[in-house]
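ok so for the tutorial part 2 we go from a plain amino acid sequence to predicted structure tokens. step 1 is just haveing the sequence, like this:
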Amino acid sequence: MVFAPSVLYGAFLEHRLRGIEIALVDSDEAAVFPMADVGRRIAQRGGVAGEVTVTAHTHMMPALEGASYVICAAGHDVSSRFTTDCRIIEALAPDHGISKFGGLAGISYSLRQIRMIQEICGEMKRLCVTDAMLLNVSNPLPRVCQAAHEEGVYTVGFCSASLAAYGWVWRILRGEQLAYPFEPARSMLDLSTAGLNHLSFILDLWDHQSGEDLYPALRDVASE
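step 2 — the prediction. this is what the tokens look like for a chain of 224 residues:
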């Protein structure tokens, strides 16, 4: 419920990508089949129902067959395993800070996720088209992306903080607070970001219509 609706919304309503198939994968039938129905309804609402396909799978391999892009938002038993990490750390190192992204718990979480992404990359190289791209939102984001890259799969990582940058820039420059999905800012500003988990840096900032470089203005307001 965190990632799939936004992907379906972006593909069918925001960008109206015609002629594509989105293959949803989840081992839980009660999650994946209703979500595929949601996708079909979104496509119908967007007027692209006859031009796109949404399929549901409980196994990865049928979905990867011939795929050009793989979006990974997976985490195997994240909650239960992280709870176990916390219990062990609290017993053996009670003063140690606990986080999924750093320290002992972060190492444990990383190792599990890296093993998962290695398996996915292996299947991608076997089943997907040549040079298929992995679009990763699985945490810990930098470590998962690095592991996929080292498996020879071209990988781009995405964090929600990068999208929130539109809201922050708008608030800094205009003094107005925007709610997700930050439509006014996204339609009027062009920006690029890079970073880590929940830590994005704005690299470029331009006015979409005029092409004006807005980074100096951002720097001036921030300095005040």
